[in-house]
Each structure stands twice: as structure tokens, then as C-alpha cells.
Give the backbone structure.
Amino acid sequence: MDELMLDGNAVAGLLQEVFSAEFTTAVGVCGSCGAREPMGAAHAFRGAGVVLRCAHCHNTLMTIVTDEARVWIGIQGMRTLEVAVP
Ligand SMILES: [Zn+2]
């Protein structure tokens, strides 16, 4: 086993910090056109869930679907998401 590899439980604290951060000021880089913008500048479309699209090229940056107990987040359309942690 690789000595640098841990299971996901080892980064639970880091993930908790990331997911409690303020996301309107988080900065995303579009995976299609490379635009770098605060997530609050993205265009949000509501339907069965929420789709956040790049304001420049309309690429899907993020999808968010919820039910009563869970949230599914897809961030397949971003190169990076920069989040300031408290
Ligand atoms: Zn874009």
C-alpha cells in the first residue's frame, strides 16, 4: 500500500471546512472557456434541480439536486473551484 494514500475519512475535517464555506464569493474557473468568476456571477436555471452555467459561454459549471435528506452536487464543468475557508 502506498504510504501517501489514505482513505476519505482522513480528510473529513478538510471537507467539512470546504462545504461550510461561503460559495457566492468562491471563484470558479470554467472548464470550457477558462473564464474565472465568482460563483455568484454564474447564471442559475431551476428545474428538477439547479444548473449553474458560465455567464460567458453557457457551459454547465455545476448541478445541484436535492431531496428531503440529501444533496447531489456535480462540478464536472469547472477546472477549479477556489473557496476561502473560515
Ligand atoms: Zn465558460
In short: Residues 35 and 54 are 8 Å apart (CA to CA). The chain has one helix and seven strands.
